[in-house]
Amino acid sequence: MAQEVLRGRSSADSKELLRNAYDLRDAARTLVEDHRRARVAVQEALGPLRRRAAREQLASMPVARLKDVTSGRLQLPALERAEIETVLQVLDTTAYELQCLPGIGPQTANQIQAAAQQIAEAAERVASIRIGLDRSDADTTGLVVALHVLVNAGPDVPRASEAAVELDERLSPLVATARPAVSWWRRLFSSRERREEAMGALAELTQVLREEHARGTSEILAQASVDLLRPRVSADEAWIDFELRASDYYALLAELASLDPERDPGEGFLPDDITRRVKAQVLDETHLRVSLRGYQSFGARFALAQRRVVLGDEMGLGKTIQAIAALAHLAAEGATHFLVACPASVLINWLREIDARSALKAHPVHGSDRAGALADWVREGGIAVTTLDVLHTLDVPRTVSIGMLVVDEAHFVKNPETRRSRTVGAWCARTERVLFLTGTPMENRVEEFRNLVAHLQPALVPDIRRSDAAMGPRAFRAAVAPAYLRRNQLDVLVELPEVVHVDEWEQFSHADAAAYRRAVASGNFMAMRNAAYAVPRKSAKLKRVVELVEEAAANELKVVVFSFFRDVLGTVGGALGERAHGPISGSVPPAARQAMVDAFTDEPGHAVLLGQIQAGGTGLNLQAASVVIICEPQVKPTLESQAVARAHRMGQVRPVQVHRILTTDSVDQRMLDLLQGKNALFDAYARRSDIAEASPDAVDISEQALARQIVEEEQLRLETSRTG
């Protein structure tokens, strides 16, 4: 075959073929080198930041840690007498200066210095680098500028670079072997076997170049190199881009700085056999338009490998993106139709994310035109996005095979008696692959978690026993691992700015106290909760809310104000005036809700968004905000954590301040006391895919029972204080 190819080709044609092969190989090598150079620039920018972070850590590390490096051999009293208390102080002291201290000779001084240096090097290797707008010094700016090159080159560049490496490995031996076939003098001095090999290589090059031409490889490589070689932008341009696309910068930083933490947190503390199965699962990213974080890739592969699962990642970790990645993989394998069911509040967000993060087409099966949209989806394929309340109305022919059903905010279907839950169950029964997404898989009972799993893997439910829960974390984890993966922000988003919680305790004004007493006397729990805002002109809580907003305004920070009560939000809105956006409430249509968030986000500098916590805390991305004000404590602790997570999430670039407004000697204090155990139990059962040793029977505190208990206690307390 090789000889036939050569016989039909002139010498000039063969030389042209070889030149084209060399050109393509050189283009591949050029891209690989350009990509390497850009990555090296980031590593060089990381150097001083690593050293600074390490020094900050060493400044608080006691000098006694030097013993750990030397197996306890060092004697350190002389350092302590000289008031050298930290490893950093040792590091900044020369060996000669150490020798001058009584009781330290040259050998001991060298040992002390060597031990300090070892600790410093280890600290530098594992130092976490955090980028924040509040730390825009020259070193951090250099890192942002270096990252800007790779971020703006786009997610296709790493893929093109990997392909270029493979192309170079494929072409290099072929062009070397084929050279005698295009040179008469090389053929003259080559053996017959060598000439045959050359002819075979030339024939294979013909096929390779034909394939790469069809793919447009030359243009792809050239464009990727152009993207990498664009002139560096100014510091101001880089910082502006960082603030707009912080999550892209952080994802790249996590990869290049090895910021992703140890394996277990990112992999949800799964058993080894499941972890191996997930890692063996290939993830085809052909239809994706986003680079996944390591833990996100693992989450998508978990959904694919285990087929019917709950992804319970804490809010802000990108569960939507992980779901889209799983759908994109299945589309690459040939699946054509997918179905997403979600609350109405997040439908628009789903449509936006699918369009921005993938090449798949989304069909909004909702509203007055849902019948037409459903018909389009059935005919064209893609992702049908509908609401949990509309799902039961969909008439989809059985001939349409659903590649995967995704149920977002799946905790809404935990009650098997509701129509919503029964509908989801019916769809699960006709769909081979199902992915539930929820940051709160269990709010009150282990039984609720079992109900979710019953939709997915009914055979697993008998293995999730109350006795497993009581036996502690290992038994419970082993029981739920095949269907459950959860990671926390603190486990996997090591670069996320800190969140600072502040309880703002206020005293009732006389007007507040009178309103509160009336509410207690009438036994009205809800009136007790919002009594502190009953008389706006004299409300101590409202005054504090306004003060916090004014402080945020002075610092050009955006604020989200949450309350359970619409009338409280109306009161706050009246006090703040026109600068307040919203309020977002359950009665606001999804499109209008998203428009409020967009207007708030697009507002230059300071702005305020008002939202009902049960509506604004679900399905909205509020990372533009760095101050969260919660007007009163909530009956469900998860409501508060969800609301905070809307701001403290991937993409946030500033520390988040959370201010909870409370009044002393009131329903607020009683609620916190009673809910403390409930919140701790949620942490134990759901937050890290395992539980502490606690009784499952202690989980449930119903809202009615809690309200009755608090009302009775407050009535007794106030009556006692009056008679006393």
Automatic annotation (TrEMBL):
The keyword Magnesium does not apply. Residues 541-707 form the Helicase C-terminal domain. PROSITE patterns: HELICASE_ATP_BIND_1, HELICASE_CTER. CDD domains: DEXHc_Snf, SF2_C_SNF. It comes from the Bacteria. PANTHER family: SNF2/RAD54 HELICASE FAMILY (PTHR10799). This is DEAD/DEAH box helicase. It comes from Actinomadura rudentiformis. The lineage of its organism: Bacteria, Bacillati, Actinomycetota, Actinomycetes, Streptosporangiales.
